[in-house]
Structure formats: structure tokens, C-alpha cells
Amino acid sequence: MKLIALDSSGLTASVAVMEDDILAAEYTIQYKKTHSQTLLPMLAEVRNMIELDLQEVDAVAVASGPGSFTGLRIGSATAKGLSFAMGKPIVAVPTVDGLAYNLYGTDKVVCPIMDARRSQVYTGIYEFLFQEDKYCLNIIKRQCAVAFDEIAQELNALGREVIFLGDGVPVFRERMKEIMKVRYTLAPAHMNRQRAASIGALGSLYYAQGKTVSGEAFVPEYLRLSQAEREKSGKII
């Protein structure tokens, strides 16, 4: 099974190719360019480097949201274009789930936090449970958009050590010191941002379970209205 994975949901642009249980390639960059400038050239570079035949690809996995509205639309358009061109399905992987999967196998509670602006984060609460010969991602709280203090209180109530990761960490680092009652740590640099490899790994599991959607039917999961939509509707959040 071959799968192309894409993540442009945040500041990081990332492309990966999975072949069964092997990460054949990953190209990740976080720099001063927009994803519309980087994502397709990155995919082309990966394709050339590993001599990827698109006809052999079985599906396209994509970070389906939440995240940057612009980034999600670029990722969605790219995934849809590949799906239409290859006649292959899309595997939609929730962005926050993909972030949590970066920390596969940890015995700590995992809490990704993405800066959602307006004092909110895109977040969720996860753990890894050992079943037979592998760890499985267990969702304690599904991805959502909430105030950081709200998710912190839920973590305190669990009473377990937490690992935070995501671009919300530097934004709320000082608030963590004030509000967190349980022990917590911060994921290191190579594990604390979106990675297409994690989207691909989860996507491979979902593909095997038949969790796919056609390119025509796929839509990103924003969780919130865009700023323009909020202003039009008069809503604050």
C-alpha cells in the first residue's frame, strides 16, 4: 500500500510518502513562504527523489482540520487535485489527532495545542493504550476549539502527567506555569509541530479500516467560522 500524506494546517508545510509500514520520504519546512508556494514543489521533489509512480499510489491522506483556514484550503485543494488526477480516495485525518500521534507510545497524557487566536486553542486530549503488539491512539477528548484555561482545568482533573505540543505552546507557556497543577513537559523540537509522516501513519490505519472519502465529497473541518464569516454574522467567536 502506498499513500501520499499532506499537512499544511499550520505554519509547517509537510509532505510524506508511506509504503506499507515504511516512511519512504518526508519533506517538512517551516519558513517565510506560503504553502501555496511550497506544497506542490515539495511534493514534486519527493516524487522525483524516490521515483514515485503516481499510478501505484492507493490514497491521499491529508490533515483535514482544524487549523489555518488558508492552509487547510491549500491542503484540501492539493489533496482533491491528486485524488481526481489519480482516481484515488482521500483519507481525512483530524489535524489534532495527527499531532498527538507524533508522541506514539508515551505513557503520558498528550495534549496538542494549536493557537486559534482570540485566546483559544485547537486541542484535544489523548493517550496511547497497548493492545496486542502495538499502541493505539485513544481519544479522551475529541479535537475542539476552547479557551486554554478550559482544557488546562480538564487536564488537572485527570490528575496525570501531560505532554504539550503544537504552536500554541509558546503562546500559552507562561499561562501554563500559572494554571497547571499536574506535572507537565513540552515536546522537543523534532516532535512538536505538524508532520506529514504522522498523518501518513494514521492515514494508513484508517485506509485499512476503509475510512476513505472521494475527492468530490471531502471538505476540511474548520471547527470555527473564518474571520470574514464571523464579521458577516456578527459573532465574536
Describe it.
With 237 residues, this protein is an alpha/beta fold. The chain is 35% helix and 30% strand. It has helices spanning 35-49, 69-86, 95-101, 148-158, 169-179, 196-208, 227-233, and strands spanning 2-7, 13-19, 22-29, 59-63, 90-93, 109-117, 120-131, 134-147, 162-165, 184-186. A hairpin with a 5-residue loop joins strand 1 and strand 2 (13-19). The longest helix has 18 residues, at 69-86.
Key traits:
5-stranded mixed sheet; alpha/beta; 237 residues
Amino-to-carboxy terminus distance: 42 Å
Helix content: 25-40%
The major beta sheet can be summarized as: 5 strands, mixed
Give the SSE order as H and E letters.
EEEHEHEHEEEHEHEHH
Number of strands: 10
Strand order of the largest sheet: 3-2-1-4-5
Q: How would you concisely characterize the structure shown here?
A:
With 237 residues, the protein is an alpha/beta fold. Helix content is 35%, strand content 30%.
Topology:
Blueprint lengths: L1 E6 L5 E7 L2 E8 L5 H15 L9 E5 L5 H18 L3 E4 L1 H7 L7 E9 L2 E12 L2 E14 H11 L3 E4 L3 H11 L4 E3 L9 H13 L18 H7 L4
Parallel strand pairs: 1-4, 4-5, 6-9, 9-10
Antiparallel strand pairs: 1-2, 2-3, 6-7, 7-8
Helix pairs in contact: 1-2, 3-6, 4-5
